[in-house]
Structure formats: structure tokens, C-alpha cells
Amino acid sequence: MPPTLDLGRTRHSKMIISPPRINLRRAASYHYDKGPLSATSSRFNFDHLMFSPPPSPGLPSLSPPPRKPSKGFAGYVRPRRVVRYILPVLGFLSRPYDHSLVSRADLPDHPAPILLTDSRGRTSWTVSIPQGSKFPLTAEQFADVCEKCRETVARVQQMRSQKGSIQQTYLGFLFDTTDSHFVDVKEAQQAGYLPAAPGDRSQDAVNTLVGETVEGGIPKPVCEKSLTFVLESDDAGLGKTLMMLWTAYGLAQKEGRAFFIDDSRWGYGKYMDIFQAPPREDCGPPPRHEMLPCPLEARHLVVSTWTAIDVFGETLVGAPSDDPLKRLEPVAQKNMFNLARLGHDALFRLNKDDNVYVDNRVRDLMARRIVPKTKGKQNGLAIGIHVRRGDRHPFEFQYRSSYVPINIYAETAREILEDKFNHTGPHGAEDAVAKKHSLMILASDDPMIYQASELKGATLAQERIKLAAKQEMKQPELDRNVMHKFHDEAFGWEGGFFSAMFWNLGQSSSSADVEAYKKRPSADAIRLRSLVGRAYMMDLAVLADASDVVICTVSAVGCRLLAVMMGWESAVEKGNWVNIDGGHPRLQFFPSTPLLFSNMGVLQVVGGPLSQQFSQLGTFSQIGVAVASFLFVAVAINVLQQFLFKKPNEPPLVFHWFPLIGSTITYGMDPPRFFKENREKYGDCFTFILLGKKTTVYVGPKGNDFILNGKIRDVNAEEIYTVLTTPVFGKDVVYDCPNSKLMEQKKFMKIALTTEAFRQYVPIISDEVTSYLKRTADFKGKSGIVDIPPKMAQITIFTASHALQGKEIRDKFDEKLADLYHDLDMGFSPINFMLHWAPLPWNNRRDYAQRTVAKIYMDTIKERRARGETGAQDIMWHLMNSTYKGDIPVPDHEVAHMMIALLMAGQHSSSSTSSWIMLRLASRPDIMEDLYNEQVKNLGADLPPLTYEDFAKLPLHAAIVKETLRLHAPIHSIMRAVKTPMPVPGTKYVIPTDHVLLAAPGVSATDESYFPQPDLWEPHRWEKDSPLAPTIVRNVQNEDDDEKIDYGYGLVSKGANSPYLPFGAGRHRCIGEQFASVQLQTILAIIVRNFKFRNVDGSDKVIGTDYASLFSRPLEPAKIYWERREGCQL
Questions:
Q1: Which residues bind heme (predicted)?
Q2: Are 970 and 944 in contact (CB under 8 A)?
Q3: Considering only CA atoms, which of 650, 698, 696, 1113 is closest in space to residue 910?
Q4: How confident is the model at residue 1091 (pLDDT cuts 50, 70, 90)?
Q5: How far apart are CA 385 and CA 553, in angstroms?
Q6: CA–CA separation, 591 vs 614, rounded Å?
Q7: Cβ(150)–Cβ(170) under 8 Å?
Q8: Which of the four, 19, 369, 786, 1029, has the lowest number of CB atoms within 10 Å?
Q9: Given CA atoms 365, 366, 371, 375 in this order, what sign does their dihedral have?
Q10: Is the Cβ–Cβ distance between 833 and 691 less than 8 Å?
Q11: Residue 370 burial by CB count (10 A; 0-12/13-18/19+): exposed, middle or buried?
């Protein structure tokens, strides 16, 4: 019998010499901690432990170890899964390096995938690992590169217009990934994408690989393909690493790869302290920078516990398209089992001394079960029992917070003996002799298990390395009447393997930095860890080789390792591997228990109570099932509410499946179509769910009047729109102030909207348009193609700023400042009704633009006040000298913010409308010729400079604006908050205060009841004798007969009962509609004088509408063909 290696012989400040075992568990303290009642009791807890304790060494599952939480959101949500499910939306935020955009000198200084573009514009990719990088990479670097590889594959396939789901781009080990367009490092170097390795770097990884040396100074030729497995120190459990190692070896053999092991940062020390060297390869490892963590096609792969699942992929758990139940069948699992078995046969060779001990121990145990004088023909049964405690808890629901009781192990062993020998004796009687010579072989990570009465008489699997329990650590008897010097209490290995105690092995009590010690352990700590690993491995080796049957709990990876070590035939087909964790006590490995290598370990039985099944799912699966169940219940309740709990006094509710979301998506995709379709189903008044809010739509002239002319006590616009307008305009103006103050502000600004002012604006606008067309490169030459919406946006901002705010302000505007106004305009995104506060890209640009533009106005105000100007007559001068009621001066910041609001009012609607006008003219070149002829006929062949009075002679120009606004009203939805319950005249409906009212004037403007052939853009319909003229009784061109009302800023038309309200109605009617008409007609007239338009393809089609903003813009790009007229004035 070889001498026993006793940990009691080691010396350490936190370990007491206590032959023959050590105990790493703190004894009862001076704080009246009585300790656990029993280590085998289900009531046993660990509140008294100093650390979260060291694994049987029961083995974790084949899944990456949990990452250490970091600060912030990313520390609690796994980045790999976040990217997997939101990659189509946020992929652009984490794009890999694009080699077509960087030189070789600009390659990343850290490991990362990069995109490559060849001379034919084809995209491929490779992985750049800077030469000289420390090998192996850190665990975080490995995981990060694998993450980015997945994103890169998806991006490259998208760029190559290949259709596929996220799962199709999964980097699975045995899946076909040849379509990922990967270029290996060696080929990338030969093509010049990556720098060549300096000098002979062919075997610079030899020194870190287990068993690899350069013999005779002559390196071996580099392997054609290889797989290097990095043993990581972050995972205390040896079992998980071992299972991955074996499987990696089996996969390498299947792929025809050489196999290497790196142990440079393994928590258990040197690989060869526990095992013998792996089989030597005839070839050598590649240079370090060619060893890549992804993808599968890489010639030389490097795998760690952090990346194994990414690299091995669904091979270990079944193809993603497989029926999950099929994966539970033995046939689907046998291939995985056999891969691990290949690795076991090649790699599970204990160091020579331990191997000799195990062989002798196995022979001794097998000899004990032989019945004397039978020559081995009558044998007892050797039953191996593996008990895992510590930080590994069962899958069985009732034991998940404790452990499987010891009596279940004992009862299962007794049942096996009864079944084996009850009818195998003479004449079918009990074989008492064989039963007497049977034995139980016991291995556990908790020394207290060996003393359990239920397993009395069991033989230890091995006694070469023992772990001491606390009871065996004799404390000296002290006289309680005398004060004694305090001594730090003893630790014993009680309660099982806990990772925290494993990492603290060899650490002095004065040490505080556990993480630093974990990464840089002392030599004493490495020796102790190695002894723990050796004890664990010898336990498993003896159990697997000496036992006829093994009883264990499948939640421990050690249990799964034992199945692999026993072999498929013995463990599975003959049923000699018995799991007691979940289901029937005799539950065997197959077919009842599923996945050998699932992320949470082996799942439980498919049948049985639903709650039992749910408890056996992995964490991610449980979350998925919970979310799916919640959604199903929510949808079911939502549907039932719509059918069973209708409110007869409220407008009908548009049917929808999902609560909160409601009809948001269908409405947002195409509001006019949504209104039209639901009007046909429910009538003029109906309700739908918009972002969780009940929104009541009332369309038609009556609806327009009901909502837009609602009394201020009944409806409120400020509550709806302040979240949009305040970040754009600024504080204390428009909807960020009381309605009475807003009415005063509108009155201040109307000074710029008089007839006399319009007479001055026409020449200013004409000059701005002419100047812009002359200097813009897109209109150089005799003809060309132009994306018209961006050009019209710049023209409208320049004309509005000069006309409304004066030359001084206009001189500060250029294309850059016009872009700032565009960023302000994008602040009116519908999503900002809910997320106006969020740091989204467009909100960040909005806020920057608001601060920048406001500062320009504030600086101008300060300059004017410093100069003491009194003669200026522009709108800024007027606002600076205006006062609210009570002679309260308008503060400077309000002046600046009103200037922003005034310019936005004069720009954003005109920008979209002018773009639609040009696109419509391109689709109808005949109308453009009619406009040109109208100018020649009524203004003269020489086309003199435009004046305000000229527009009375150009009715078709006015009709163009009217017809375009009819079909393309800038705002498709106008909303109001309901302040008091509002009865709907002529109906039984009452709109409650938890609803939002929505008017859609565009619905009546495209209603056949008022406009024949409503979808046809025909400007001539506004001629009185046109067969397509509006059929309403009231003449829409004469507003003088309409009812007028003064809301505080002058008389305006109420617009009651009108089907045509492009500028709204009521107290919030746009005060700039006359300016918009003058601005649009002037721009139109100047362009018509100088250009002819048509569609690029010569068709009469018009591009679709972009409803992403509150304003109905053309989808971009919207290109048209232009041609200069003869006698062009530019």
C-alpha cells in the first residue's frame, strides 16, 4: 500500500495540522454561532461560513462560467445574448474594423475582426491579433472576439445580400459556415491585408503548451490545422473544464486537427501535476497570432471555457431547427457522448504515482467482491456512490435549496442489490452469499458524508489524499476560568466544495485582495489546489473502474463525467449509471434524462407535472417560458376584455391583439390608410390604443370642428405637445407656458405677418432662391439629376430666416446652420412623445442644435442692446421691445426661443410642401408648362421681377399650393388632451378624460364626398368651372364669409365644418398660413421660370410618404431630372 498523502502535513497560517484530514470550515465562533445541526440534514445551511465554500469536486455543466458582474447595465445582462437578439437593430453600433477604410498601420491595437474589400468590391473578413500579444489572450478578450465574429458574419452576409436569420450565422462547430467569407490569417498576410510575422515566429507558443518542447533545437513543422484548449483559472470547478477538454479533443479528432493544451493560467496549477502529458503531435503549434478564437473555418482554433459554446455551437445540444424533444432521445445524445469519450480515452491518464495507486486500489476493491472458492464465477456487486454537496444543489424541485438526502442514496443501493440477487441463488432463491460480498464504494466532496449512519460500512473510493472534517480536529481543553490568548479558529473541509474557499486556499488571514490572490496565487496555494484536483480525479477513476453500478445526482458534472468514463454501453444501454436527481429513483441516463451537456446541466424528465418541468429548465429557458406565458395570458385577457366588456357610451375600440402596443404599429406605418380603413369599419368616431393610451379619432368636418374648436376648458394642446416642442424651441414659449401667455406671444409674432410685410418679403425670397440656384453645384450645367427634398429644406430655411428675421440673422445662416435646423426638426419624432428625455442619437443632435441656435440669437440680442439700437424694424427688434400684460418686458431667452419657434413655423411645413410640389410637377410636366405659360401670359414675356401683387394674376400657382396641401398636409394627426367628459353631438358617446382626442383633417380632404377623384393630384380642380371642383356648398376659396373669432392674437377664421383645413383651426390654427402661401408661390414661380422637371424614368409616379416624423415628408432619396429653360435667368 503506497504511503498516504495527508494534507495534515502541510503548513499554512489558516490550516491546522490535523492528521489525517484537513477541514476548511470555520468552527463555532465567539459570536454564539452554534454551527449546523448536521451536514447531512436538509435543514443544513451556510450562514455561518466565512466564505462561500470549494467543487467535489462535483462537476459543473458544459457551459461557459458566469462572468463577473461589472458596473452598469452590461454587468447584469450577458452581452452575448443581448447582441444575439438585438443585432438587427443595434448592429451598426458595434461594427468591426473595415479594412477598406484603414491602412495596415491603422489596424486595431487589440484583437478584433476586420472587414476586407477586394478590388472587385467583394467583402470578406479576417481576425487581427496584434503580433506580440500575450498568449493566451485574457478570458474577456476571447469572449469579446467571439462576440464580434458573430456580428461580423452577419454584417458580411448582409453586405453580400445573403438572406439568413441569426441562427444561420451562428458559428456552430459542425455547421456549414463556409458562406461567412472568412479569410484565414495566413492568407490575409499573403494578400497584404495583415503584416507578415517578423522572423521565424512559427513556434513561439511552444513554451506555454503542455508537453511541447523543441527537441534538438529543430522545431517541428507547423500543423496544417490545430485546436488549442486553454485551461482557465476563473472556473473553480474542475469537472466543467474536464468535460469541455474531452469534448474539444473529440471534436478536434473529428475535424482532423492537431490538439494542444495550454495550462499557463489554470487554477489547479500544472496539468502534468494531475495528468500525464497529452498525446504528442507530429507537428508543432502555429504562431500565436494565427491561433484564433473564431470562426470554425479558422485553420488554428483556440478554445477556452469562455468560448467553448460559441465555437462548438449547437453541436453539443442539437441543431437549432431540431424538435427539442428529439434532442432528448438517446440517438441524438450518443454522438456527443462519444466525442467526450474520445477525449477521455486519450487524456484521462493520471500522473504515474496516482495511476499506480488507482490501479492497485481498483484491483483490491474488485477482489473484495469475489466469493471465495468460486473462481470468480460468483461475485458480489460493487455499487459506487458519488455524493456532491457544497455549492452544487439538485435539480429536484423539493431539494433545490438543500441536497438530496443521504437515505435516498442508501435506499437506491439497497433496491439495486435486491433486484440483482433476490432470485439468482439456487432454485431461484436469494443469493445471500453474493449479497454479503457486495460493497458500497463512496466518494464525496464532504468528509462528513463518510460518517453518515445511512452509509455505514461504505468503503472510501481512495485514501491516498484525504480531507479532514472539523470533528477530527482536536482542540485543546482550556480552563474556562482563565483568560487565554485569542487564536484564529480552525478551518476544516466540511460542507463540500465551495468555489470561494477553493480560491482562498493558501491565503493568509491578513490578505484582503481576494481577486488579486485568485489571479496570482502563492506556490503553497497551487500545491493545495493540485492536491484537491488529484483527490477528485482519483475518486472518479476508482468509482468508474471498480463499480458495477454508479449512483449519483445528474446536477453534478462529476456524475456526468462518470457516465462518460463508464462508457455508453455500460452506463446507458445496460443501465449501470443511475441518477436519483429528478423523477423516479432508478431514473437512468437514457432515455428518460435529456441533454448531457446542456447549459444548466442535464434537464429533467419531459413528462410529469408542469411545475416540475419548469423548475428543471435552465435560467434563460425559464425566463423565456415566463415571458411567453405572460404574453399569452396578457393577449388572452386583452382579447376577452374587448369582446366581453364593451363600453356602450364610448366610441368603438379598434380590435388589437397586444395590450399597450395596441394599434401603434399599424397606425405608425400609414396613418391615412389606418384612418380610412377604420372609418369604413367603425364610422367617423372610433378609439384605438396608441402607446398604451386610448386615442379617440373623430374625422370629417364635424370631427374637425369638435376637436379643433373645442373650448379651452374641455381640450388642451399643451399637455400633449410640450414634450416635443419644449426641447426644440426652449423654455417658457409656445406650449411651455400658460395658454394666455401663448396667445400674447402669437400676437407679438403676427407683426411679421402683415400684408405690408408680405410686399417686402416677395423680393427677398426671390433673391434668396435665385442666389441659391446659382451657387449650388447640383444645378450647374444644362441638365442633371437632383435629390430635391434636401435642396428645398435649405431654400426654405434661407428664405424664411431672411424674410422673417432680417438680413443680420440671415447672414449668420449657412448650410451648416440649416443642418442644425434640420436636427431640430427631427426632434418632432413620434417616439419622443414617450422618450423625449432619452439620450437617443436624434435627441442628442436636437439638444446640441437647440443650444447652438439659441446662443446665436442670444449673442445677437446682447450685441444689439450693447449698441443701443433703436432704428431696427425687424421681428427681433419688435420682440425685444414687446411687453406682456402688466408692462412685463419679454426676457431675452424668451425672445431667442420665440425666434426659433417663428423660424421653425416658417420652415418645417414649407420644406415638406415645397418638396411635394416639385415631385408632383416632375410627375406632371404638362402642369409645369401651364405654370410657365401663366406667368408669360399674365406678367409679360420678359418675366419681370415678382411682386406681391403679381400673385393675384397667377391663380394656377395658388392652386398648385392648395392641391398639394390637400393631398400632402404637413401634419396628419392633431391631438388634444381631454380635460372634462365631452359628449359627442348627435351620438350616445361621451369621451372620458383618460382619452386623447385626435383630429385628422387630411381624411376629409381626400373624401370623395367633397372632392371628386380625391386621390388625383389635379390643380385645375380649383377652377370654378372644373368638373373636379370641390362639391361642398361653402366655397373654400372665400373665407370672408366664414365665422371669425379673436383668441387673443387677432381675428381668425374658426374653419368650422370645413373639409379642407391644411393649417388647422381654432385657437391653435397656424398664424403663418399666409406667409407659407407667399413663400411657396414665390419659390414655385422662380423655379418654373428657370427649369423644366420630369421623373428620372419618365413615368408619372410619385414617391411614397415617410411617416417617421410628425410631418409627412417624401421618402428619401427623391430624385428628379431637371433641365434649364431657354433664356434661363440664372
A1: 1070
A2: no
A3: 1113
A4: very high
A5: 10
A6: 19
A7: yes
A8: 19
A9: negative
A10: yes
A11: middle
Q: To 5 degrees, how large is the angle CA 163–CA 168–CA 169? A: 95
3-state helix/strand/coil string of 1008-1067: CCCCCCCCCCCHHHHCCCCCCCCCCCCCCCCCCCCCEEECCCCEEECCCCCCCCCCCCHH
Identify the CA nearest to 219 among candidates 282, 171, 270, 275: 282
3-state secondary structure of 889: strand
**Dihedral-angle region of residue 794 (phi above 0 means left; psi in -120 to 50 means alpha; beta otherwise):** alpha
Q: How many Cβ atoms from other residues are within 10 Å of residue 124's Cβ?
A: 21
Provide the 10 A C-beta neighbour count for residue 403.
Answer: 27
Residue appearing with cell numbers 465555437 = 311
Give the alpha-carbon dihedral of 93, 96, 102, 106, to 10 degrees.
100
Tell me the CA distances in angstroms from 711 to 578, 700, 978, 1054, 1114, one per residue in order: 79, 19, 10, 12, 35
Residues 644, 648, 653, CA angle at the centre, nearest 5°? 70
In angstroms, the CA 945 to CA 947 distance is 7
Q: Can you give the three-state secondary structure of 921-964, one letter per residue? A: HHHCHHHHHHHHHHHHHHHCCCCCCCCHHHHHHCHHHHHHHHHH
Q: In whole angstroms, give the CA distance from residue 1084 to residue 1071.
A: 21
Do residues 1125 and 926 touch, judged by C-beta distance below 8 A?
A: no
Q: List the grid coordinates of 1130.
A: 440664372
- Averaged pLDDT for residues 192-218: 67
- Per the annotation, binding residues are 1070
pLDDT score recorded for residue 904: 80
C-alpha cell, 951: 400673385
- First-to-final CA distance of the chain: 108
Please state at what angle helix 892-923 crosses helix 955-967, rounded to 10 degrees.
100
CB distance 733 to 745 below 8 Å: yes
In sequence order, what are the residues at sequence separation of 6 or more whose Cβ sits closer than 8 angstroms to the Cβ of residue 107? 97, 114, 128, 130, 194, 195
Amino acid letter for position 672: P
Contacts of 554 (CB under 8 A, 6+ apart): 395, 560, 579, 581, 582, 589, 593, 601, 602
Least confident of 374-388, 754-768, 1095-1109: 374-388
Contact (CB, 8 A) for 818 and 810 = no
Look-up of cell digits 395658388:
958
Residues in binding site for heme = 1070
Across 499-517, b (16+ Cβ under 10 Å) vs e yields bbbbbbbbbeeeeeeeeeb
Name the grid cell of 1053. Answer: 377664421
- Of 437-441, 748-752, 1100-1104, least confident by mean pLDDT is 748-752
Q: How confident is the model at residue 615, as a pLDDT?
A: 63
Q: What is the pLDDT of residue 639?
A: 93
Question: Quick one: which of 253, 230, 231, 248 has its CA closest to 315?
Answer: 248
Nearby residues of 415 by Cβ (< 8 Å), 6 or more positions away: 585, 586
Locate 598 and state its grid cell. 446542456
Kind plus residue range of the DSSP H or E element containing 114: strand 112-117
Q: In whole angstroms, give the CA distance from residue 1058 to residue 888.
A: 39
Widest Cα–Cα separation across the chain: 132
Angle (CA) 693 697 701, round 5°: 155
Phi then psi for residue 125, to 5 deg, are -155, 160
Alpha helices in 1049-1130 (DSSP H): 1073-1090
Calpha distance 976→703 (Å, rounded): 13
- Going 445 to 449 to 454 to 457, the CA torsion angle's sign is positive
